[in-house]
Design goal:
The structure holds two protein chains of two kinds. Chain A is an all-alpha fold. Helices cover 78% and strands 0% of the residues of chain A. Chain A is built from twelve helices and no strands. By secondary structure, chain B is an alpha/beta fold. Chain B has eleven helices and nine strands. The N and C termini of chain B lie far apart (62 Å). The model of chain B is unreliable at 1-6 and 20-30 (pLDDT under 50). The chains are: A mainly alpha, B alpha/beta.
Chain lengths: 279, 343
């Protein structure tokens, strides 16, 4: 696409802001990571060596990526049927569904995260229900466990999956599904061969957002996961704000950036491949 | 096309004006004001209610507060390199030592505080002045657990399976872990025995949480015993939570919160007025009352009966720590804690 001069000029303020507030800090981050000591006096790669040479780091990287993958799967499995309901609903109900989807975004993530302490806690709503129904003799341990964190993140990140998905769904031509049915395809076949491939761009975009957001969700990870579940954002916070080792914090931040970037790229590739397969 | 040009010019002009205003904004203070970093939550609310009006009344100085935890203040001031984002720090002992090491403070002259004589000896030095004390011990729910006697009880049944812990990220967490380690033969610079002991009971520990989430975890019954300070216990009680403070047999831990003038501050005079207002008896007395629950440092204030001491001098007997020794070791302890407790 060739842009006319006026168009790229209009994009200039955003490009400058992007350069000033993303590219320059990123360059600084890379620069700081190349110092050996906290006072930034000796250049070297000692921090990289100590960070990447520690098996614990790799466990944390693996756990962080795994958390992202599990959250993406959970949000997609729960979110996609909601999107299908949206697809089948009339305009008024579509507006209602959209409003309900956006609603959680109107509350601060800190408030939503602390609300999950109340829900998942020993004396929380879920445990009260479990005990009342006699499903378990003692309260279940949900807080500070990975399943508990995934449950909370699934709710917290759900709007990020649904917004791009619903936007693609609402532009889908309903005649295509009618045509598929008219040609004798079952509902499942229509779903798998028509609806799913057409909605794939929205689903892939949503999955990428959920992955990037859940792997970097420091507040939710730390407040719900506690110190027992260690993810990369916790290491960055400890190094930058508690012990002021900025080179090591930069190394951890770049490691997070690279792992999340690779994860997002993998989702995008997977999306492209499956679209080619479906069509 | 012309229209789009005009729009762009307007946009650029508007953007330039906005940036200009932002750049000027920093220096556009009223003549009589001081910008203070302030702990978010209880501190900020209490200072807004009591210090702000008192400072305005006594010296006609406006107090502007920037909510920041101690570690965030050090990080911001270090990053600002000589152009401090605020005039006054409020810090715990660990970050205070870091601030001195990094040259973030102006030299301080305690004699410029008219109320200095009301403080116990040693509460002000060449770097700053003490404005509050904190006493750390054990907080537990008396309806669910028997009263613990000392630090070692935390790692025994029935307490350990209801224990809520935090790591070395906070001052109170660090000193509590050091005290536990001491009971098993460790010291201020050697928390190793703590790690040995905690490994034996780790699966039983009810919660190992983010410091900011500990009051919520206690309130929700996720844990019923934890190391904490008197202020948190009093605040939780004010919300109707069953919690009592226990002074461990080996002694409660005391540490002081201090205020400092940021290097390069243009409001030195007002910073002194601000500090002096904070340590006056009426302000210290108001800060001690619920829901603020501060421990005062002014001798003229009659201590509340809920506090674990009858006079400020009694705090001399409380356990104290040398943060100049702790700071250099803390990074390794944090990394060790992560590895020990991570599943």
């Amino acid at each position: 696409m060739r842009l006319r001069p006026a168009e790229w000029q209009l994009a200039l303020p955003l490009a400058l802001a992007y350069a000033a507030f993303f590219l320059v800090p990123l360059a600084l981050l890379i620069l700081v990571s190349a110092f050996d000591d906290e006072r930034l006096t000796t250049i070297g790669f000692a921090q990289w060596r100590s960070f990447l040479g520690d098996p614990f780091t790799w466990k944390v990287v693996f756990d962080t990526v795994k958390l992202g993958v599990v959250t993406v799967v959970a949000t997609a499995v729960i979110g996609y049927p909601i999107a299908l309901v949206f697809l089948g609903a009339g305009p008024r109900w579509q507006r209602v569904i959209l409003f309900v989807v956006i609603l959680p975004l109107l509350t601060s993530v800190v408030v939503r995260t602390f609300a999950w302490i109340v829900i998942l806690g020993r004396e929380g709503v879920i445990n009260q229900a479990v005990l009342w129904l006699g499903l378990a003799p003692a309260p279940l341990n949900l807080l500070q466990t990975e399943p508990g964190l995934v449950i909370a993140l699934t709710q917290i990140e759900m709007p990020l999956l649904l917004l791009p998905l619903l936007s693609v769904m609402s532009r889908m031509d309903p005649n295509l599904r009618d045509a598929s049915a008219g040609l004798g395809a079952s509902r499942w076949r229509t779903l798998l061969r028509v609806t799913l491939p057409l909605s794939l761009p929205g689903l892939v975009a949503g999955c990428m957002l959920v992955f990037a957001s859940s792997t970097t969700a420091f507040i939710s990870q730390f407040v719900i996961g506690g110190n027992r579940l260690v993810y990369l954002p916790l290491l960055i916070w400890q190094q930058s704000l508690v012990v002021y080792n900025w080179p090591l914090a930069s190394v951890a931040a770049l490691t997070l950036l690279i792992s999340v970037g690779l994860g997002v790229a993998a989702i995008a590739t997977l999306g492209r491949r499956s679209r080619a397969y479906a069509v | 096309m012309n229209r789009s040009h005009a729009t762009r010019r307007q946009f650029l002009a508007g953007a330039a004006t906005t940036l200009g205003a932002l750049a000027l904004g920093r220096h556009a203070h009223a003549a009589g004001s001081v910008t203070a970093a302030m702990y978010p939550g209880t501190w900020e609310e209490a200072y807004r209610a009591h210090v702000l009006p008192a400072l305005k009344k006594a010296h006609d100085v406006d107090l502007e507060m920037t909510p920041l935890f101690a570690v965030d203040q050090i990080a911001k001031a270090s990053a600002a390199r000589g152009v401090p984002p605020f005039d006054a720090f409020v810090l715990d002992p660990g970050p205070r030592v870091t601030g001195i090491d990094r040259g973030l403070f102006e030299k301080f002259d305690p004699k410029r505080l008219p109320n200095l004589g009301k403080l116990p000896a040693g509460m002000a030095d060449e770097w700053g002045v003490t404005v509050a004390a904190q006493v750390v011990g054990i907080g537990y729910n008396p309806k669910k657990l028997p009263r613990p006697k000392g630090w070692t009880d935390l790692l025994k049944e029935p307490w350990v399976s209801r224990l809520g812990m935090t790591g070395f990220q906070t001052t109170y967490g660090t000193v509590s872990i050091i005290e536990i380690a001491k009971q098993f033969g460790g010291s201020e610079t050697n928390p190793e025995p703590f790690f040995v002991e905690i490994r034996k009971v780790l699966p039983k520990v009810a919660a190992i949480g983010a410091p900011a989430s500990m009051p919520a975890l206690f309130q929700q019954g996720q844990c019923d015993i934890t190391y904490t300070n008197t202020q948190t216990v009093a605040t939780l009680r004010g919300r109707g939570v069953d919690v009592e403070f226990v002074k461990p047999e080996s002694g409660a831990v005391a540490f002081f919160t201090t205020m400092h003038i940021a290097k390069g501050s243009r409001q030195m005079e007002n910073a002194y007025k601000y500090f002096d207002t904070v340590i006056t008896a009426p302000v210290q007395a108001a800060l001690m009352e619920p829901p603020n629950n501060f421990i005062p440092v002014n001798r003229d204030v009659k201590l509340s009966k809920d506090l674990p001491m009858a006079s400020l001098d009694e705090m001399e007997k409380f356990v104290r720590h040398d943060w100049a020794k702790i700071n250099p070791l803390r990074a390794a302890w944090i990394a060790r804690f992560n590895k020990e407790v991570a599943k």
